[in-house]
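Hi P.,

Sorry for the delay on this. The queue was packed all week, but I finally got your sequence through. Input first:
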Amino acid sequence: MYDVILPSLAEGVDKAHVTYWFRSEGDDVKEGEDLVELVTDKATFKLPSPASGTLKEILAAEGTEVKVGQVLAKVQ
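Then the structure:
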């Protein structure tokens, strides 16, 4: 099982908001494929899947604020 984790962001930025999931729980994903869109005070960016497999669980719903290092989802 692989964790989708919010990585370190720009200096001084330690949180982001989940704006859109490109896949739903149970969907197959490929490593490097865009999985979730996030927004900070400075930028909008897409976080890719860390591995190929199935998106087993989304832990951060759209509209949720997440912090650096937080697990957003699990891929198996």
